[in-house]
From TrEMBL:
PANTHER family: MIR DOMAIN-CONTAINING PROTEIN, RYR_IP3R HOMOLOGY ASSOCIATED DOMAIN-CONTAINING PROTEIN
Keywords, in A-Z order: Receptor
Taxonomy, superkingdom: Eukaryota
GO BP annotation list: calcium ion transport
Protein name, as recorded: Inositol 1,4,5-trisphosphate receptor type 1
InterPro entries noted in UniProt: Ryanodine_IP3_receptor (IPR015925)
Organism lineage string: Eukaryota, Metazoa, Porifera, Demospongiae, Heteroscleromorpha
Length: 432
């Protein structure tokens, strides 16, 4: 729930996305028919209501010369009142709602909703349904204020009571999977006896050696990747300054590579696709610190293959293009990165490619980039995007089946319980 609300309250979230997420919030948390204490005991909904006040004001201040996005009107006049009414009419005890702790937000909410009801946009509606919906919501909020002895500013309380009622008064990925697989493999070994004890010692020793080597190799791998990411940022650094290849690489490399991702070469090479997508994502992520061996390898690679345009230490690179995440996101979007993410998912790729494409899409949207949001929204609203959502659904189903087969129970607090999957198991995972 906190993730859904975090998107809704983000200042750069576009109305189209808000409409989708608030419907999700309403269906899964507010009107789910369950005693969901998280909805009422935590402050997520109050954060949403506080954010709603800003959106309501945009509608109230709208005039003939300042038209408002129709999607924002739907969000403010349809979804917000519905969520508010269901939330405050839920019958949950006052202690869970924490009304007194958020009295200022409730006061502001009542005031903004009344202003919305009296606004030119609402009063000029031919149908009474919108006015009836707002009237019902405002009076429920007003009733809540009176029950909690919350005084409304000025004559607002009197104005609400005098409102005309003639027209009617009435929303952790792959780590656990590896842990479960390791646990199942260890169980399947079922080591017993002297020889098996020797085998166990050998296996444990080999595991420790691989872990140690993995730590050493990780820094070298990160150093290599940091160089590749910098080359993606500045491909011209591979060529002599001011030469023809220098200028050509500067203007066309990333765009050409994105276009070539549709070719048969990438379609038939899973590892290559993952590798390129991962480096594109690296352009949008924070640089990592390297240990001494990693720095040495990075310096050697740069001095061997690149000119002086790239800093030897990634943490010292202060070029505006590298530091400005929004600029990089917009540049990649202009090169066709948003379309690439959608196409990669729609082609029913192998799981590793699907995962990298999803992570790249998340990185493109990181920080609430409105330009990328609008671009993705437009493309995913087209009829041809049905395949995209079908692929997402298929992967959800596959993950659900894996959870069942592994005997996992995810508790309300988010903890994972590892249950047996034997025939005589009484694990609650069977009920998933």
């Amino acid at each position: 729930m906190d993730e859904v609300v975090r998107v809704l309250v983000h200042p750069d979230c576009i109305p189209q996305v808000k409409n989708v997420y608030i419907r999700l919030l309403y269906s899964c948390y507010v009107d789910c028919g369950l005693d969901n204490k998280e909805t009422f005991a935590k402050d997520h909904m109050w954060s949403l209501f506080n954010s709603c006040c800003t959106d309501i004001t945009k509608i109230v201040k709208a005039g003939p010369l300042t038209p408002v996005d129709p999607d924002l009107k739907t969000y403010v006049t349809v979804h917000i009142p519905t969520v508010m009414y269901t939330f405050f009419e839920s019958g949950q005890i006052s202690a869970l709602l924490k009304v007194q702790a958020h009295r200022e937000t409730l006061q502001d909410l009542v005031e903004r909703m009344y202003a919305l009801f009296m606004s030119r946009f609402v009063q000029e509606q031919e149908s009474d349904s919108l006015r009836e919906t707002l009237d019902r919501c405002i009076k429920l909020l007003h009733k809540c204020c009176k029950e909690e002895v919350i005084v409304l500013p000025g004559k607002l309380s009197d104005n609400i009571q005098a409102m005309s009622t003639s027209r009617g008064a009435r929303t952790k990925g792959l780590l656990w999977k590896n842990r479960v697989l390791e646990k199942k493999k260890a169980t399947q070994l079922n080591l017993t006896g002297p020889q098996d004890n020797i085998n166990r010692t050998i296996i444990d020793g080999a595991t420790n050696v691989m872990a140690h080597l993995g730590e050493q190799w990780q820094s070298l791998t990160l150093a290599e990747q940091s160089v590749l990411v910098d080359i993606f940022h500045s491909p011209q650094s591979l060529f002599t300054f001011d030469s023809k290849p220098y200028h050509k690489a500067m203007n066309t490399f990333c765009k050409s590579l994105i276009e070539h991702m549709d070719s048969e070469v990438f379609a038939s090479d899973e590892e290559l696709s993952v590798y390129v997508l991962r480096n594109f994502r690296g352009m949008l992520e924070k640089r990592v610190d390297l240990d001494e061996s990693g720095v040495q390898l990075r310096v050697k690679l740069l001095r061997t293959y690149c000119n002086v345009e790239i800093s030897l230490l990634p943490v010292e690179d202060t070029s505006p293009e590298v530091l400005n995440l929004v600029a990089i996101q917009n540049k990649l979007k202009d090169y066709g990165m948003a379309e690439l993410v959608i196409k990669q998912i729609m082609t029913s790729p192998p799981a590793p490619v699907f995962l990298e494409a999803m992570l790249l899409g998340v990185a493109l949207l990181n920080g609430g980039n409105r330009t990328v949001q609008s671009s993705l929204w437009t493309k995913l609203s087209e009829p041809s995007s049905e395949k995209f959502f079908q692929e997402i659904y298929n992967h959800f189903e596959t993950s659900q089946q894996e959870i069942k087969s592994m005997g996992l129970v995810i508790q309300q607090e988010g903890d994972i319980v590892y249950g047996a999957t034997d025939g005589g198991s009484t694990s609650p995972a069977a009920d998933l």
